[in-house]
Specification:
single chain, 584 residues, alpha/beta, Immunoglobulin-like, Oligo-1,6-glucosidase, domain 2, 3 domains, 8-stranded parallel sheet, 6-stranded antiparallel sheet, 15 helices, 21 strands, 24% helix, binds 6-O-alpha-D-glucopyranosyl-D-fructose
């Protein structure tokens, strides 16, 4: 294992040790409804989060990202915002937000908030004013209102679907009681899309960004960043019109997932996604953020855009700082596919000077501890119900721990979704009456949806609501199995998933893995992923290796393993579905 063998396969150059914080930050996603409940109403809240911030300091993350906490009728769990400058009473108040931000900063944690600029809630005062106003009015001009097709305008203006199922248009009743115009909602009926060609919309969002910067936040995760601008003329789309349209098709070779209704894939571009005009918006926001006092504030794109070369355009030096690498999240348990995704990600992001932003789970996808325990030849399902194929929990967790060790060994930034540090599985036995995801309702249950990854977190096994809050109420039911995953069952227990995350995060920080270079190692190939992460001065070299093969992999003599995702039954042997970090 000499330097020469690895230098030949350089994947990614190191960052300087004084690189800005976001280039290697590990960011923990909090879904406020489900993390910690301070008042016993069964819904998590901001004071609950503030009280438990020390847990995150001890976990060893650098920042938190909070899913929306703004005033909302909660038809899409807060992604339907009625007032961007205030907090929904179920979560607390602006004072609570200030206290949370200050408390996080005191502990050295940065705070990223969610910005939802593609649509508002239908309860937003702008949309209410639009409904009350005439067709063609300035009020309607902030949204996408159009006349319907057909003799009496009874058909929607085009064939665009809602990502959540059904039609993307809803017809309104005009003031005189007659059926009138239609408005576009790429998501739920209660989430009307803004018209970003209207300068008023851009100015309003610039002001919202400034509002939150003044309150001290360190960045924004930008919801549906690929959707704000629509193709001129709103032409029909001849690609997939439903989430499941092509998901039972054979997976094309070299690709893990079919292109979904919320994605722009290679080839013909859907008229609602990844339009060139979005980049101008992000350049404006970047220059607005760059004018703020230090430290640097960031933008992170939630953009379901393929291929990676196209996604990298969101993180050019005058646009966003980060973009979630959903190709990595969508990679099935296959070493070659992982190697390809890693290679391409570095190539494309390095070409624009951006870090790669790794992610395995979030509030929209089946948790990776369950996802990786499903049949890997099938596409990723949108939720799992009790009467569907169940994940193999043991296998899923084993692979999830290895996948996370791979992710945290890679240079760049990484996002962790609440509960994954506990190895938490998806809830797969939730009775339908509890389901709240609009996807479930809009598809009449054909798609299960995302509630299964949003269940309140278990903190204490023998406590009401598993320690989520002071009462036994939880807005979604916690599965029986969750008690065993509770924080108090894992803290201080050698080999637990929580302790594994803690030790990986401490070592990652200490060794500066996030700023390191990466080069394929000679053991990489076949069923093995192996690379060397080295510091800029090459004084510290870490081998990151995952064995996806059926046989144990024998490490070269003298390799000092520092971290392992499972016990190595024989020293120097890496069993199936196990990852190691080693000093070389
Ligand atoms: O979650 C999905 C299906 O698995 C995606 O289609 C998702 O809707 C898409 O990634 C956009 O997500 C974001 O915007 C939505 C919101 O429901 C999601 O929670 C959010 O992450 C609308 O605001």
């Amino acid at each position: 294992m000499t330097q020469n063998t690895t230098a030949a396969a350089q994947l990614h150059p190191a960052d300087p040790a004084d690189a800005p914080w976001w280039r290697d930050a590990v960011i923990y996603q909090i879904y406020p409804r489900s993390w910690a409940d301070s008042d016993g109403d069964g819904i998590g809240d901001l004071p609950g989060i503030t009280a438990r911030l020390p847990y995150l300091r001890d976990l060893g993350v650098d920042a938190i990202w909070l899913s929306p906490f703004y005033v909302s009728p909660m038809h899409d769990a807060g992604y339907d915002v009625a007032d961007y400058r205030n907090i929904d009473p179920i979560f607390g108040s602006l004072d609570d937000a200030d206290a949370l931000i200050a408390g996080a900063h005191d502990l050295g944690l940065k705070v990223i908030v969610d910005l939802v600029p593609n649509h508002s809630s239908s309860a937003h005062e702008w949309f209410q004013a639009a409904l009350a106003a005439e067709p063609g009015s300035a009020e309607r001009g902030r949204y996408i209102f159009r006349e319907g097709k057909g003799e009496n305008g009874e058909e929607p203006p085009n064939n665009w679907p809602s990502v959540f199922g059904g039609n993307g248009w809803t017809r309104v009743t005009e003031a005189d009681g007659t059926p009138g115009q239609w408005y576009l909602h790429i998501f739920d009926t209660t989430q009307p899309d803004y018209d970003w060609t209207n300068p008023e919309v851009g100015d309003e969002f610039a002001s919202i960004l400034e509002f939150w910067c003044e309150r001290g936040v360190d960045g924004f995760r930008v919801d549906v960043a690929h959707g704000l601008v629509k193709e001129e003329g709103l032409p029909d789309w001849d690609g997939p019109l439903q989430m499941l349209d092509n998901s039972d098709a054979a997976l094309p070779s070299g690709e893990d997932e079919p292109i979904r209704v919320h994605e722009a894939g290679p080839g013909a571009k859907p008229p609602m996604w990844d339009q060139e005009g979005v980049h101008e918006i992000y350049r404006r926001w970047r220059s607005l953020l760059d004018k703020q006092p230090s430290p640097e504030r960031i933008l992170c794109a939630e953009a379901w855009v393929k291929p990676e070369s196209q996604l990298a355009r969101y993180v050019r030096s005058d646009e966003m700082h980060q973009a979630f690498n959903f190709d990595f999240l969508d990679t099935h348990w296959n070493a070659e596919r992982f190697r390809n995704v890693i290679t391409t990600s570095f190539e494309e992001n390095d070409a624009v000077g951006a870090p790669t932003t790794w992610v395995l789970s979030n509030h929209d996808v089946v948790r990776h501890a369950s996802r990786l325990g499903l049949d890997q030849s099938l596409p990723r399902p949108n939720g799992i119900a009790a009467d569907q194929a169940q994940p193999n929990a043991e296998l899923g967790l084993r692979r999830a721990r290895a996948a996370t060790m791979l992710m945290l060994g890679l240079p760049g930034s990484a996002y962790i979704y609440q509960g994954e540090e506990l190895g938490l599985p998806e809830s797969t036995d939730m009775p339908d009456e509890f389901r709240q995801d609009p996807t479930f309702h809009r598809t009449e249950g054909k798609e299960i949806g995302r509630d299964g990854c949003r269940v309140p977190i278990p903190w204490v096994r023998d406590a009401p609501s598993l320690g989520f809050g002071p009462s036994d109420r939880t807005w979604l039911p916690q599965p029986e199995s969750y008690g065993a995953y509770a924080v108090d069952q894992q803290a201080g227990v050698a080999g637990s998933t929580l302790e594994l995350y803690r030790s990986m995060l401490a070592a990652r920080r200490e060794a500066g893995l996030g700023l390191g270079s990466a080069a394929w190692h000679e053991l990489s190939g076949g069923d093995v992923i192996a690379f060397v992460n080295a510091s800029a001065d090459d004084s510290r070299r870490t081998l990151v290796l995952v064995n996806l093969g059926a046989e144990p992999l024998v490490l070269p003599a003298g390799t000092v393993v520092t971290h392992q995702s499972e016990d190595l039954t024989t020293e120097g042997h890496v069993p199936t579905d196990v990852a190691v970090w080693a000093r070389i």
